[in-house]
């Protein structure tokens, strides 16, 4: 008799799963807007491409500092408190944009982005294991990819909002930062409302035992750092987010310098760029019904490598189309690496989620490296992410295996 395939989630978890999935969209908006902010600060504050990479250092650097404390906070106070704490930090970061804009200080903006990034780090640390717990472990890959599909929708909304408020305004008056204040205060108010609504949601009681019951042959008695699939997942996530941050940070620069677009046109194409990621996640979630998640991850990593090679050649629309495809292939990487790393961790699941989230710090450094190359040739900078995708492919085909 064939085994019945488990559903994506259970009826008792639907409301919680829907709300948690909305959080994925929220930080997707913020991440994508930071890439538009990257170009806006180049125009308004007269910073170089390499200096603008410090924006990503501020945001992703927060993950290195906050992920472990967020995991400890979640373990002590629970999922609800963790999410409310993350939303509080998130909103506080957006409101700090007001004094930063008034002072016209790039360093103050970086401080605001660090606080905002701390909120996102907290939310990601809590939301990923929570989404993984809301159903059978065998469908956790699909569940995280489904939630991350809405994260991808957020990355479509982010550039659209950022282009309208920032780059269009910047094209008219290069010294104007009022649009930045208006935009981020509005986001802060929206986040505050979401926090109030979330405090009213009933979250089912979920324990470590729930996750253990869903595992098969769980090596939960082994120390976390002796579980090689988890260790390699942390490393793979580091390289994955490094590639993502670098690719996104200089997308608008590529459109402007290689394709000859205005900043606003390039930002509008970024909407299509992010739509490719949303498409990839929905397609990936469907394909995982038929293809093992690790194999699909490996195939997509290979596609990213080939795409980067074409992008670096600056062959006009051929290379620009390949740049769009990088985001399609990138789509399933973050949630799939996360899910593969969490499998069979049992009582170590929450702590493991903290360390995998901390792997996001890769995004803090790679834009700086790509920026140094992009200062001379933005197309050639896209050779660098190939290193990252090779590591991800190796993890997908060999290093993901759970060892007893």
TrEMBL record:
Recorded topology in the membrane: Multi-pass membrane protein
InterPro entries for this protein: MFS (IPR011701), MFS_dom (IPR020846), MFS_trans_sf (IPR036259), MFS_TsgA-like (IPR050375)
UniProt main location, coarse: membrane
PROSITE patterns on file: MFS
Subcellular location: Cell inner membrane
Residue intervals passing through the bilayer: 12-33, 53-74, 81-101, 113-136, 148-167, 187-208, 229-254, 266-284, 296-316, 322-342, 354-375, 381-400
Gene3D superfamilies: MFS general substrate transporter like domains (1.20.1250.20)
Span of domain Major facilitator superfamily (MFS) profile: 16-404
Keywords from the UniProt entry: Cell membrane, Membrane, Transmembrane, Transmembrane helix
Name of the molecule in the record: Sugar MFS transporter
